[in-house]
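Hi all, a correction to my earlier message: I attached the wrong file for SDR family oxidoreductase. Here's the right sequence:
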Amino acid sequence: MTNTALITGASRGLGLALARALGAAGWRLVLTARGAEDLDRAAAELGATAIAGDVTDPAHVARLAAAAPSLDLLVNNASDLGVTPLPHLADHPLEAFRGLLETNVTAPLALIQATLPALRASGGSIVNVTSDAATGAYEGWGGYGATKAALEQLSNVLAAEEPGLRVWWVDPGEMNTRMLADAVGAHEAAGAADPAKVAAALYDLVSSRPASGKVSLH
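and the right structure:
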């Protein structure tokens, strides 16, 4: 039986690289991202199902769950950096922070809730992509880091509540992505890890299915 994976933020960066690795291994893929053009290009390359939309939209979450009635792997990779240049907490716009919480914490939980019946049926796995900003005191990263800390604790509790699943909260380290370039500049981002190499390590994690827990890929 073919395994099925649902990946958010799949049109570029780590999400696309992981989709390529899973696709090469014969997985069926349901991919989502906000940008329809890039997502359609990725889906055409991989023979995947593309459903463009915003993960904070409940109707979109429902469409994603309906597209994967049989599901073995959920990857919550979509994330928002927030205001750039990254502000100190004293100056962080509260409305922007609320938006970060919605995208980086509430949306992953909504998709988990929507897909849990299928994941329980398969004894499947969940990957929540986090960051070392969840624990490190990096100036300017307080808003984003707070959301990733919340996602880590959500994952930790979920693992305890769903012992039949594998739940991993994964810190991929710095990668040469558009998000990192927006945060630190293209020159500095160019020295970070290739998302394809990180995706290879993440694929090994998914394939070997160790016990639930926090995983660092750097």
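Sorry for the mix-up. The CA atoms of residues 98 and 143 lie 9 Å apart.
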